[in-house]
Amino acid sequence: MSHLSTANTENTSKKNALSVVFGVVTALIISFAAFAILAAVMLWGGIGEGLAGPLTIAASVISILAGAFLTARRIGEKGWLWGAVCGLVYYIIVYICALSAMMEFNFSLKTLLMLLLGAVCGMAGGILGVNAGTKKRRR
User: Which residues span the membrane (predicted)?
Assistant: First the structure.
């Protein structure tokens, strides 16, 4: 492998990693805003606590879709892969934050399902991100 090829691979790897970080940070910001709005509506509005779980999951799904979309859009290829990475990293960060708040480790089927949900939503967002705006030539 030539020096030029190695440098190009390193630049691509760095660009991909920065794109994932950008997507995850974007997803976390969207989640934080959505959770703040949800908390305010629950506090002052008419939404009961029974809807908190489903609305939290919905906010996370939307956040992951957006973050994965942006990640894959920046990378431009393999949207399913980079979207899944974005979704998994998002949920790992959220899980670590939840662990630090609860001070106990509890890896359960629910945790595994949330990681799977993050990966699947990330894949969907990544596929949309790569394919958005591409114009296919008619033959």
Answer: 20-45, 51-72, 79-101, 113-133
